[in-house]
# Entry
Amino acid sequence: MAQSRTVDDPRAPWDNPRPMSDWKDLGPADALRAKDVQQVDVDGKPLALICKDGVFSALSGHCLHAGGPLGQGRLSGDYLVCPWHGWHYHCKTGEGRPGFNIAIPRYETKIEGGRLLVRTTPSTEAKHPSHPPHPLTRPIERAPGPPRVVGISTTVMNRHDPRYSTSEDLLQVALNHAASIGAESRLIKLNDLKFRSCEGYYSKSAHACIWPCTITQLDPGDQLEQVYDAFIHWADVAIIASPIRWGSASSLYFKMIERMNCIQNQLTTHDRVLIRNKVAAFIITGGQDNVQAVAGQMMMFFGELGFLFPQFPFIAHSRGWSAEDMENNVAYVKETEHLRNGAKELAVRSLDMAREILAGRAAPTSAERGGRKAGHPEG
Ligand code: FES
# Structure
């Protein structure tokens, strides 16, 4: 009959014909000392195994923030740092930094016969963060009221000495007209907001790109939250205005849409559609040409977010490649009635579509992935 043994049994675990119930043999301790942080698998559960100054400790492998793989993290002093967004846990206790009342479970380790053993059950419990969820995570429910239009101006200019912008002017015309026919309107000038560029968490893992954006969650001073709130919660119609810069939309436009990856990525990682029943339209102006490429990019991106388009979803103006007399371009846009009427009609078309949607032609809550997003990321 096989003999049972306790963890105090001096014999090495491999001497025992039966596995110990509560300890797992991870292998030769000397070999495991080669890395200061590594992920080990214990009964299908990933743990972060740490070796600091030759002493082992083991912690849960799942970060409390968004499940980041702590066994792929790094040490910073006495703290294990999550590889996704940098949360810190004490490498011995699993507790957060002073002032952060969080902890991940800790697992006992010991060395027997040159082998490293880890207990399969934790000796401490997780302490989850107690702060309330970010306001952007509230349920997406349209508040009652008239149709709402947000205008996003992406023009870059000197904040202290602003200049006339053709695209922003036409956007303002569209918003004023929307208000005159019963809609609520709001103008957001990206140039007035302080917000950071996308820092590429998606490039670590699709699951590291989270909603709300990591930067919005970690940096209360980041003001792109206003745009997120308008797109996801407030507006029925978004009109995005951009100048043409070297054949593309403005740099602020691209800075904004890179931060929108977290909206689109919810479909990739969670089959979750954040943008539903919303209409997007565009105003594009430039001294030189390339309207079609800019409109194509904007429609592709906002379509990927889940926006719908009215018939003829953009207005544009360009005087062509060789027109360098920009003073005349400014005068032309200010004085030309058909451009201003075009902006008003764009607002009307967009609002008509929004009203139709609000009247019951709702978009589905979930979506087929189609060809481009047919695959699921790991995890
Ligand atoms: S810091 Fe770990 S998942 Fe975000």
In short: Residues 1-18 have pLDDT under 50 and may be disordered. The CA atoms of residues 197 and 350 lie 30 Å apart. The chain has two domains: 13-119, 135-358.
